[in-house]
Amino acid sequence: MKKAILIFLSALALVYTLWYMHFGSLTDNSGALSTTGLSHPVAFTIWGVLTFAALYSNILYAYAELPRKHKFQYVLCGVSAIGMILTLACDFDYAKQTEYLLHCAGSLTFSALTGICVFVLFLLNYKKSKPYAVFTYIIGAILIVDLIMLIIFNQNALIETVPVIFALITLPIMNFTKLFKEKTYASR
Length: 188
Hints:
It is a single chain. The protein has about 190 residues and is mainly α. Helices cover about 75% and strands about 0% of the residues. The chain has helices at about 1-20, 35-40, 40-65, 70-90, 95-125, 130-155, 155-175. The relative contact order is 0.15.
C-alpha cells in the first residue's frame, strides 16, 4: 500500500509540475516558477505542497531502508519544510522587500537541503551497486550544472525544475525496482 501511494504521489507531482510549467516561458526569467506563482498563487501552492510531499516521502522512505540508521535527514526535512512554507507564504514581489527576501531564502533553503539530502542518500549507497555509483555522479553533476546555470541565466522554469523532475523520477525507481537493489559494484 505504501509503495502504491508513494508511486502515485510522485507521478502526480511530476505531471502537475509539467502542467504548472505551461503557465510561463520555459527559458525566460519571467517563466520562473515563483514568478508564475504571482499570477497563479493557488496553483503555485498546490505545486509546492505536492512536490515537497512527493520528494520527502520518497527520501524518508529510502533513508529508512538503509542498514545504518541516520537522523540528519529529519532535520533537513524539517528545515526544508520551513523553507517551502516561506516560499509559498511570501510573495516573490520585489516591491514587498521583506516578503521577497523571505521567499528567496525559503526557496534557496528548500532547494539546497533537498538536493543535499538526495545526493547524500546516493552517496551513502555508492558502493552498493553500479547504478548507485553512476547516479551519484549524475546527481552531483545536475546540482552543479544547475547552480551554474542559475548564476548565469537567473531562474527560469527549465533550470528550476530539472533537479525536481529528475528526483521525482529517480527516487521511486530507486525505492521500488530491482535496478538499484542488485549488488554489482561492491563485489569487485
